[in-house]
Write a structure and sequence with these properties.
Structural class: mainly alpha
Helix content: 40-55%
CATH architecture: Orthogonal Bundle
Order of helices and strands: HHH
Radius of gyration: 12 Å
Number of helices: 3
Oligomer: single chain
Distance between the termini: 9 Å
CATH class: Mainly Alpha
Largest sheet: none
Shape: globular
Number of strands: 0
Number of domains: 1
Strand content: under 5%
CATH topology: Non-ribosomal Peptide Synthetase Peptidyl Carrier Protein, Chain A
Length: 83
Amino acid sequence: MVAIDKRKIREQIRSMIAEIAEVDEDEVTGEKSFIEDLGFDSMMALEIFAKLEKQYKIKIPEEELTKLSNLDETVNLVVKYME
C-alpha cells in the first residue's frame, strides 16, 4: 500500500481551490469558508468536486458535497476516499 502524503495533497488542493476562486493561494487557509470567505457558488463547488475525483481517481458520494466547506474538510474527505 502506498503511503498518502497528506501535506502534498493539501498543497495540490489548495492550489486547485485558489485557481477556481481566482485568489492567491495565501488566501486559501485551513478554516476559511469557500462560500463566505472565498465567494464560492454552487458551480464552483461542483467544479472542485469533479476535479478532486478526476485528479485523485476517487469516487466521492454526492451526499459528501456539503463537506467541501473549507480546505481542511476537503483534504480530510479526499484522504478518506483514497484509503
